[in-house]
Specification:
The protein is of the alpha/beta class and 506 residues long. It folds into three domains: 20-113, Sandwich (Immunoglobulin-like), CATH 2.60.40; 115-225 and 276-402, 3-Layer(aba) Sandwich (Rossmann fold), CATH 3.40.50.1110; 414-499, no CATH class. 25% of the residues lie in helices and 26% in strands. The protein contains twelve helices and 23 strands. The chain has helices at residues 2-20, 124-127, 136-139, 175-178, 183-196, 218-222, 228-238, 242-260, 281-287, 315-330, 353-362, 389-402; strands at residues 35-37, 42-47, 53-58, 61-66, 72-77, 83-93, 107-122, 145-153, 167-173, 200-206, 297-301, 337-340, 369-372, 414-421, 424-430, 436-437, 445-448, 454-456, 458-462, 465-469, 478-481, 491-492, 502-503. Strands 1, 3, 4, 6, 7, 8, 9, 10, 11, 12 and 13 form an eleven-stranded mixed sheet that branches. A four-stranded antiparallel sheet has the order 14-15-20-19, with no helix packed on it. Strand 12, helix 11 (353-362) and strand 13 form a beta-alpha-beta unit. The longest helix has 19 residues, at 2-20. It is globular and about 85 Å long.
């Protein structure tokens, strides 16, 4: 009898205590020192005791919502212009006997700025840290900037969409916080902050050696039957323990090639376990938790791992799916998606970097996109060129034009169309004012006739076009430029921006 009386008393006391001491929590993307996106509603969300009221105060505004039965809550504050620092306070209104608002400790986020937030993602050339960049010794000592904030996302592959990140939180840019951060993203942020005079937050969510489809929602890939080869490829890799064998064989091939050429034996600290190559796994672990956080746009540098002969032809389709799906998941419109075309690298016959670059170039047909061409600043002998300053500045140029509305040339000569002219063929370009060839004669052009066989061509500049011909091709109807893994390219416009390699073949 006494036991029956004690149980309800215990449960009642436990419920009151758990209500009284229930604690609110926020996802790790929300923290002190963060930047929230200007001119968009400020989204704040988290967990609390079921059915409890939560109040958020920021920039003189307070709003209240109620947590659902699972304790999840979400609210939006009014958008505002750039500024700060501000304080953001999250307070749960506790209920129950003896409970008061002050019974529950509030969450206070200090030093919060309002500005522009950019998400940097992709593989190793975006992951490449400031400490290894060519200008690290000059620039890292001066990396302290209270108006640049950095968030590093730790690597995680997941079979399902995570609701929170693995991260140590936001930091103010300093020599210490910048040294392991994406060099490309940091140089981009420095340039934009100096020119636009607004706080800049950059999120580094990268993983070297990864493929594009691992960064796309599995559902988005599965909805498109033409992308079935991705799943077939994945199946072959996982059958009978083939993942480890594939990785070991690929790395051994590269070691053997380096030894035969008398070069240093490569190490693979950047190469991920191929388990992370699964479609959707990196979206789930490293991007999905960011989707509720409004951003200004995306910086993307990836493609080298999709250059294998069976993957390269699908890249444009995969990449478009990625861009469309990220925009859909963020639900803030067609935000700018600025990306880097892969550079020049000798690679192997098992990879087609030229085809991959063309796939990237064709993605420019999508609205609010821009591409930084890097064919002139790579390293044919190293897949990780150390010049990240120019990459960051070219992305910043694109942002200045596409995002911030500046009247600035941001693209090199971009192939528009080809018109046969008897024994020659003319290539027409956009962004071709001041078309010129560095170092003398134009190099890198080839032409083909009806048989589709390309031969080296002599090319000359006429205004904003190129006229090319070859004694081996009597009636050229196709033209291409820089069509090799590591081509010799020297075509630029007046702004010193390089022409993208291209082919007129569809």
């Amino acid at each position: 009898m006494k036991l029956r009386l004690l149980v309800p008393l215990f449960l009642s006391t436990w419920m009151q205590t758990s209500t009284l001491f229930a604690q609110i929590s926020l996802p790790k993307v929300l923290g002190s020192h963060m930047v929230v996106q200007r001119d968009l509603p400020v989204h704040v969300w988290g967990k609390a005791a079921p059915n409890e009221e939560v109040t958020v105060s920021f920039r003189g505004e307070s709003r209240t919502t109620r947590a659902g039965r699972l304790g999840q809550w979400s609210l939006y504050l009014a958008p505002g212009s750039a500024g700060g620092p501000f304080r953001l306070i999250v307070q749960e209104l506790a209920a129950g006997p003896g409970a008061t608002t002050s019974s529950v400790q509030p969450i206070v986020l200090d030093d919060v700025f309002v500005g522009d937030v950019w998400l940097a993602s992709g593989q190793s050339n975006m992951e490449f840290p400031m400490s290894r960049a060519a200008r690290a010794s000059q620039d890292l000592p001066h990396a302290a900037n209270p108006r640049i904030r950095l968030l590093m996302v730790k690597k995680r592959a997941s079979d399902y969409a995570e609701t929170d990140l693995d991260t140590d939180g936001w930091t103010v840019s300093s020599p210490e916080s910048a040294k392991d951060f994406s060099a490309v993203a940091w140089y981009f942020a420095r340039d934009i902050e100096q020119r636009e005079h607004v706080p800049i937050g950059v999120i580094d969510s990268t993983w070297g050696g990864t493929i594009a489809e691992s960064w796309v929602r599995l559902t988005a890939l599965g909805e498109d039957a033409s992308l079935a080869p991705l799943f077939i490829s994945r199946g072959k890799m996982t059958d009978h323990g083939a993942l480890d064998a594939f990785e070991e064989k690929d790395e051994q091939r590269q070691r053997d090639e380096a030894k035969a050429a008398g070069k240093p034996i490569p190490q693979f600290p950047w190469h991920p376990p191929l388990a992370s190559w699964g479609p959707g796994l990196l979206w789930n672990g490293m991007i999905a938790p960011l989707a509720p956080f409004p951003i200004r746009g995306v910086l993307w540098y990836q493609g080298e791992s999709n250059s294998a002969l069976e993957r390269a032809p699908l890249y444009n389709h995969v990449f478009r799916t990625l861009i469309e799906d990220w925009r859909r998941e963020w639900a803030i419109g067609d935000f700018p998606f600025l990306y880097v075309q892969i550079s020049n690298f000798k690679s192997t016959p098992a990879e087609d970097w030229a085809a991959l670059r063309e796939q990237q170039r064709r993605t420019l047909e999508m609205r609010n996109t821009a591409m930084a061409v890097t064919i002139d600043i790579g390293n044919p002998d190293d897949v990780h060129p150390t010049d990240k300053v120019d990459v960051g500045l070219r992305l910043a140029r694109a942002a200045r034009a596409v995002t911030y509305g500046e009247s600035v040339e941001y693209d090199g000569p971009d192939f528009r169309q080809a018109t046969p002219e008897g024994a020659s063929i003319r290539a027409w370009f956009d962004h071709a004012k001041g078309l010129n060839a560095k170092g003398g004669d134009v190099t890198g052009f080839e032409v083909a006739g009806p048989d589709g066989k390309f031969s080296s061509a002599t090319a000359k500049i006429e205004g904003e076009s190129i006229v090319a011909s070859s004694p081996s091709v009597s009636e050229p109807i196709q033209i291409r430029y820089g069509w090799a893994n590591s081509p010799q390219c020297n075509l630029f416009n007046a702004e010193g921006l390089p022409a993208s390699p291209f082919t007129s073949v569809h």
